[in-house]
Design brief:
Radius of gyration: 22 Å
Helix content: 25-40%
Number of helices: 16
Mean pLDDT: 90
Strand order of the largest sheet: 4-3-5-6-11-10
Structural class: alpha/beta
Low-confidence stretches: 1-22
Length: about 400
């Protein structure tokens, strides 16, 4: 679905003396304070709830103190932007079992190592604890590191446990197409971003009035992927980058759209996001991956929301290579830990501090749920930013 464009000169003045925010045209010389002033000048009467989808956005919002700087009736809601948080518990459990009992070298991105699973305290409850119990588990920062480890250990089976959204999955697809060692297999737990938002919008109460879409995903997949928000649901949307300036520009855009009662998909990250996205990355994803109905931890099955290896790469699928280690019964216990409200935090239903465990039993040093583990988890971001209560930032 193409993004509708409009020329600023062709837009009539609104009834409060301002032009409708021009589609895909962002003034480049405005500072964060300029955007704040423009936002505060808007004649906003009712409360506006704006959801941000990206964990990177949430980090900037929290660390820059944007919630406290905005008008009281503007509410910024962290949404489903943490792939580690929604990685199925059974996948983490399988990775732990492979590392402990299959004699493999298990490699994973660092924030996956501390994600807890629901097992007795006498058993390793995370990859970090499994490593402490003697398993060969190694953190990596890129797919190329996984390839290097496999080549350096040709007599060992290496399993690359991957959780991420489109921007993580695309380099993995490129890695596969370039060719990988025979002893390297993938335990893939990657997800698409937009289906979770589509699920929320399909409900009777989406919980937000406008959307700030993730700039890094739009860079790969194209901003058009988010056009359904405005075209099918008449909800304002803007793609944003990760600076306070870009986020405040997107906030201003969606607020103006609400006031003008005309929704469109705005691009507030034009220096990186281009119409159509990255065609090469999209082609590689189509060649190396297939999309399926995937489980999100604590949330359930979301249609067409997961990446799995294409048939041509099934020989590198760890689930097929180590079938005896996957436990079907884990799916019955694959929810969040008792008392943990991570699922509702991920869906923007509650703020992190509204979970009873936040900051007490659950801290970055002693995480109970995945939202306190990942750098993209709202709970960890809030604690790292010194936010103890949502009442202080609304």
């Amino acid at each position: 679905m193409p993004i509708k464009e409009i020329n600023k000169a062709s837009v009539p003045e609104s009834n409060h003396g301002h032009f409708l925010f021009p589609k895909q045209i962002i003034p480049v010389n405005l500072t964060a304070q300029d955007w704040l002033n423009k936002i505060k000048a808007l004649p906003l009467v009712h409360r506006v709830r704006i959801m941000n989808v990206c964990g990177g956005h949430e980090r900037t919002i929290t660390m820059a103190g944007l919630r406290g700087a905005l008008p009281q009736n503007v509410e910024l809601i962290p949404g489903p932007g943490c792939p580690v948080c929604v990685c199925p518990e059974e996948d983490v459990y399988l990775a732990i079992q492979l590392a402990l009992h299959a004699g493999v070298i298990l490699v994973a991105f660092g924030d996956m190592l501390r994600v807890p699973v629901n097992v007795p305290k006498s058993e390793p409850r995370s990859l970090e604890q499994a490593k402490g119990a003697g398993a060969d588990i190694r953190p990596v920062a890129s797919p190329q590191e996984a390839v290097r480890i496999a080549r350096e250990n040709p007599q060992r089976q290496v399993v690359f446990f991957v959780a991420g959204f489109e921007t993580t999955t695309a380099p993995v697809a490129a890695m596969l197409l370039e060719g990988i060692p025979e002893n390297l297999s993938l335990l893939l737990s990657c997800r698409l971003t937009w289906p979770a938002v589509a699920m929320l919008l399909a409900g009777e109460q989406p919980g937000f009035d406008a959307l700030i879409a993730p700039g890094h995903v739009a860079t790969v997949m194209g901003p058009e992927e988010w056009a359904f928000v405005t075209e099918q649901h008449a909800i304002p949307a803007a793609v944003a980058g990760f600076s306070p300036v870009s986020l405040l520009a997107a906030t201003y855009s969606v607020m103006r759209q609400l006031l003008e009662e005309e929704c469109f998909l705005d691009n507030c990250y034009p220096e990186v996001v281009r119409s159509g996205g990255n065609a090469t990355a999209q082609s590689q994803l189509k060649q190396a991956m297939r999309v399926f109905d995937a489980n999100w931890r604590g949330i359930g099955i979301i249609p067409a929301s997961g990446f799995a290896l294409a048939t041509r790469f099934e020989q590198h699928d760890a689930r097929k290579q180590f079938m005896g280690y996957e436990t079907e019964g884990r799916k019955r216990v694959g929810e969040m830990p008792p008392g943990c409200d991570c699922a509702r935090v991920v869906l923007g239903k509650i703020y992190p501090d509204e979970c009873k465990l936040f900051g007490t039993a659950c801290t970055p040093r002693t995480p109970v749920g995945p939202c306190m583990v990942s750098d993209e988890g709202a709970c960890r971001i809030w604690r790292a930013g010194g936010v103890k209560s949502s009442s202080t930032v609304k």
